[in-house]
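Chapter review: from sequence to fold.
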Amino acid sequence: MGKLVVTEYVTLDGYMDEPGKWSFPFWNEEAAQFKFGELMASDAQLLGRRTYEGFAAAWPTMTDTGEFGERMNGMPKYVVSTTLDKAEWNNSTIIRDDVPNAVSRLKEQYDRDILVAGSGVLLETLRQHDLVDEYRFMIHPIILGHGEKPLFRQGNEATLQLVDSKTTGKGVVILTYRPA
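The token string follows.
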């Protein structure tokens, strides 16, 4: 049975807004190896519409991303959306209805991880239905002071157990938690 893994870039003050604008100064080989290992250990991706659209616009046009890019573009992708008409990125399927049951079926279908990146609205749905098996947060040493997308919205309290932590040479703390 697959494990649903939420993986997020987060600021020190808890925002996940547009990481492309603030995370790159902290990128290094350690972060790249972590993301590479994470992707290679996964069978599929589960994405919200906005994250999917951003990924689908960027990844197919990248030509020098090697094995990582090949995996991103080739692996099955599931996008949760009630407004998207079609999903044209390779191996993409739209989930429109009954998200909790659809995700439970995905977990039964795959043996390895199913990655959820970004996708704040989807993350809340998954948390509400206790579908997340593991959280991986890359906490970046930057304070935005504002944002539209806090990592967690109010409600749906949860207790987590720390199962791993590491720090990159650029000061990014990678924390892995599982529901307690």
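Two observations follow directly from the output. The mean pLDDT is 94. The radius of gyration is 16 Å.
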